[in-house]
Amino acid sequence: MSELQKTDNGEQAIALSNKPVDRHGANLDYHDAGNVVNPEHIAHHIVSPVMYLAIFGVLMIGTLATVGFAYLPLGPFNAAVAIAIACTKAVFVVLFFMHVKYSSRLVKLTVVSGFFTFLVLVIMSMSDYISRAWGQW
Amino acid sequence: MSTIVSLPDQSTATLPKRSYLNAEHGLLSWLLTGDHKRIAMLYLVSITFFFFLGGFFAGMIRLELLTPVGDLMAADTYNKMFTMHGIVMVFLFLVPSVPATLGNFLIPIMIGAKDLAFPKINLLSWYLYMIGGTFVLASLVLGGVDTGWTFTTPLSTHYLNTHVITTATAIFIAGFSSIFTGLNFIVTIHRMRAPGMTWFRLPLFVWSNYAASIMMVLGTPVLAIAITLVALERTIGIGVFDPAKGGDPLLFQHLFWFYSHPAVYIMILPGFGVISEVISTFSRKRVFGYTAVAFSSVAIALFGFFVWAHHMFIMGVSNYSALVFSLLTMLVAVPSAIKIFNWSFTLQKGSITFETPMLYAFGFIGLFTIGGLTGVFLGSLGMDIHLTETYFIVAHFHFVMVGGMLMAFLSGVHFWWPKMTGRMYPESISKLAAVTTFIGFILTFFPQFVVGYLGMPRRYHAYPAEFQVLNVLSTAGATVLGVGYLLPLLYLGWSLKYGAIAGNNPWQATGLEWQIQSPPLTENFLETPVVEWEAYDYEWLAKKQQAELSHV
Amino acid sequence: MSVSSTFSEITHPPAPEIHASHDVHDHPFYQRHHFETAEQQREAAGFGMWLFLLTEIMFFGGLFMAYLLYRNWYYDAFVAASNSISVPMGLTNTIVLITSSLTMAMGVWAAEVKNKKLLQIFLLATVVLGFAFLGIKTGEYYDKFAEHHVPGASFSIADFVNPPAGSKEKPLPMDMAKKTEVYFSLYFAMTGVHALHMIIGIAILIVLLWKSNSGVYTSGYVQPIENFGLYWHFVDIVWIFLFPFLYLINRH
Questions:
Q1: In the beta sheet, which residues pair with residue B390?
Q2: Which of C57, C62, C185 sits opposite B239 (nearest CB)?
Q3: End-to-end Cα, chain B, rounded Å
Q4: pLDDT in tens, C126-152
Q5: Residue B506 phi/psi, 5° resolution?
Q6: Within an 8 Å CB–CB cutoff, is residue A131 touching chain B?
Q7: Which of A46, A79, A90 lies nearest to residue C237, judging by beta carbons?
Q8: How do residues B58-76 score in pLDDT, each as one tens digit?
Q9: 3-class DSSP state for residue B243?
Q10: Residue B507: phi, psi to the nearest 5?
Q11: Any idea where the Cytochrome oxidase subunit I profile domain is (chain B) (predicted)?
Q12: What local confidence, expressed as pLDDT, does residue B11 receive?
């Protein structure tokens, strides 16, 4: 569809890309799975077993590290380290085992919005618990 | 701007030979269907049943409150009445009302798809709804539940011997039904749009259902876990909310309202969508500020997750946090007001006609505005402390939920009835019903603002004699309201067989659903439509009609 | 007929043709009628699964919220109670579950490269590892029952007020010791809900394993395997957080 396209007004418009557009210039291709320009699509990608094994290695190291750090007396940093390691592991699982790295922006946005809403729940609720004692001295 | 109205002559219209209604026959073909339109009809029948069940409880409540003393029923029976009223109306009527019936029927057609993305999950969602409803009926038969629809802990976990677990199971299951409906809508709207159907060509009904679906998917599971913990606390005695064991009852409130406040928007947003369609159609104008209306739905969905603690101002939340939640609550008024203003501007200089759906829509705008504004009163900290747990609250949320949502639902049912069934209802009696509903509603709930402001608390079966006049008014209004709701049931049922044939586009509306036959074919479209016009383009419609005439 | 034909003439302008390029194509056997392409179906299903996982995030999110609150309120009780559960068992279970995630991921790969035998091997391995996890979990639950650490009528705080001889734990004051019940409430709620997800997962896995016999998943129809993989990995992620949160609060 990269040739000239006639519009209703008889004007000639050059289609800038090779995707079909209507006379308002809107993309007609939203349901076309082959179209990678559309943020809701992406070409399918097969992750190789070597990659899976590498990620598995990372997760194992993370697991052992969590246990190791738990026995070190780091005070408040114990919790911070544990959460940091757990989050890193989760990110690896999400990106590679769950293929989000190779997924469309729509799926990436979906994942992010899930964690965002969870943070809203935690932060807004904790704002109540943390500030309850304020001003009561 | 607005195109002159020439409603089609329906005397020549005929029913199509083949439609989704007669594609297959027999009860099983309905119970095992994957067709979104048939599932919508299943939902319509079942939520109508639960609506009248909930209405029955409301009637009993109003009867009891006719006199100041508790003479009709005992106090705990009264508690069960308002609890069952709340649970049935919220979880089995309001939440699924517009999305599961009208949304199910229309969203695939409006975006030019053959069906929802997951037809089997759609059917599953109806079955889950019915199982949830059965559990509610079971708890009713077993003797009812009296926690209030809010399941307040530790009342629900420690002090009541009624059927809390049965009801909790019901809500858990019905919640999954709602999640699956929302999930189906989101995927369908993202992935199944016809060529050319860009986001900003979607009818606003689709936008508002999309926003509501996001809230269903993100909010409902939090209610599910909260209610699961309540059930576990009752059965095996874990101590997450139990103050005797160190738990915090307010945590339950946080989790419960994290869902149940967004749930209010889940209930009202699809109603906004209906009103946008109806207002535009009957003033023959594109909705003023389409983009603003579309984004205000999304904004409401987003803000909805930040305001829940305004239900807890008197429960001992931190003053500072309450201040923040109060301010954020005010913010919700902004997108709501955008909608009201834009509907008003849509009406301006439109060629307005007063068909039944439009009458309901006018009712909606008036009543929702009052309901919304009193919500701002309640959102402000000082007022809320005075008004919480009074009839002012009751009046406020009934103005939004009944005056708003139910009006929108009835408006939508009347608007799309010709499309769903292929037949018209009698015009004059339906207008009478719309007016009756409006008058009955005002009479029922306006006195409650006054009586609440004077200090009458909610959820008691007896009250001081000085409040009787207003309560009698309210009960009288409820009677009128009941008539207003029964009328549509009768004449819509009558129209199924005897109504005039509607034709494809009796209102001259622009949506894709009006360009196909009524009732539609099982596959909706013979071939995938390519959308080349903006939403609410009445000039395009006029040209199309012209072309069709010259073609014939 | 007249209606639809006029409609299609209006919506399909005669020239230039703006038909989407794939009006004519052959449909794979698994493509449902209301999807235009198999790819569209695949992406819709994947997106739907992710939306379902969103609800799972929020479902567990409520529990994590409760955990966060009470851990801060009753830190000493949480430490003492956490130290009463077995790290070796928790660690083993973590390794088992991560390994099962690997086998599941490999299963998805096997389905994508259309190798039926490998797919079945990996699915079976995942089932076995899932059962192993549940077995170890049952052992842990049994220990808790024996120690009267299950919340409810038989709950006893004796171990925390008077730690058994040889324990490195300091005795807790009475009111704080009582709060260990909150910890165990959350412990059983969180691991219980997690285990329930495992049980549902294993049941689905067995169905997939049985249906994979026909070769249906290794002839291009990867979607069910892929979506189940998402679910399984999600359950794994929940455990990745549960392990340090419940087992490793303050070990010494």
A1: B457
A2: C185
A3: 28
A4: 999 999 999 999 999 999 999 999 998
A5: -65, -25
A6: yes
A7: A90
A8: 999 999 999 999 899 999 9
A9: helix
A10: -100, -5
A11: 24-532
A12: 74
**How confident is the model over A38-60, as a mean pLDDT?**
84
> Residues 6 or more apart from A57 whose CB is under 8 A from it?
none
Instruction: Determine the 3-state secondary structure of A12 from DSSP.
Output: strand
CA angle A22, A24, A30 (to 5 degrees): 50
CB-based contact B518:B419 (threshold 8 Å) = yes
* CA quadruple B78, B83, B85, B90: dihedral, nearest 10: 160
Burial class (CB in 10 A: 0-12, 13-18, 19+), C173: exposed
Judge: C61–B221 Cβ closer than 8 Å, yes or no.
yes
- Position A12 scores a pLDDT of 40
Helix (H, G, I), strand (E, B) or coil at B428: helix
Minimum-distance CB partner of C91 among A55, A56, A67? A67
CB-CB contact of B189 with B106 (8 Å): no
pLDDT for res A40: 63
CB B412 within 8 A of CB B102: yes
With 80 as the cut, is the pLDDT of residue C201 above it? yes
Tokens of B68: 């100041």
The mean pLDDT of B11-25, rounded to a whole number, is 88
Q: What is the pTM of this model?
A: 0.92
Indicate whether A34 pLDDT > 50.
no
H helix intervals, B380-514: 381-387, 391-398, 407-421, 427-453, 468-498
CB atoms within 10 A of CB C63: 22
Q: Which residues pair with A21 in a beta bridge?
A: A27
Q: How far is CA B131 from CA B136, B216, C13, in A?
A: 9, 19, 48
Half-sphere exposure at residue B242, Cβ-oriented, CA atoms within 13 angstroms: 25
Minimal Cα–Cα distance from C206 to chain B, Å?
Answer: 21
Q: Report the share of chain A in percent with pLDDT over 90.
A: 53
pLDDT at B391 over 50: yes
Q: How close A16 comes to chain C (CA, Å)?
A: 15
- Helix ranges restricted to H, C12-152: 38-73, 75-83, 87-112, 116-146
Structure tokens at C134: 């549940």
- Rounded to whole angstroms, the Cα distance separating B242 from B230 reads 10
Give the DSSP letter string of A102-114.
GS-HHHHHHHHHH
Residue B389 DSSP label: T
* B546's tokens: 């012209």
Place of tokens 């260990």: C180
- B251: nearest CB among C7, C20, C66: C66
Report the 10 Å Cβ neighbour count for B525: 21
Q: How confident is the model at residue C65 (pLDDT cuts 50, 70, 90)?
A: very high
Backbone φ and ψ for A14, nearest 5 degrees, come out as -90, 125
Residue B352 makes CB contacts below 8 A (sequence gap 6+) with: B282, B283, B358
Are the beta carbons of B241 and B153 closer than 8 angstroms?
yes
Tell me the pLDDT tens digit for each residue of B75-111: 999 999 999 999 999 999 999 999 999 999 999 999 9
Residue B532 near residue A28, CB atoms below 8 Å: no
Do the beta carbons of residue B44 and residue B75 sit within 8 Å? no
pLDDT digits (tens, 9 = 90+) for C80-135: 999 999 999 999 999 999 999 999 999 999 999 999 999 999 999 999 999 999 99
* C231-248 residue pLDDT tens: 999 999 999 999 999 999
Is pLDDT of B27 > 60?
yes
Task: Please choose, from the candidates B411, B410, B408, B416, the residue with its C-alpha nearest in 3D space to the C-alpha of residue B506.
Answer: B416
User: Residue B548 pLDDT more than 90?
Assistant: no
Q: What token pair was written down for B421?
A: 């069934």
List the single residue in A with minimal CA-CA distance to B323.
A128
Strand partners, B457: B390
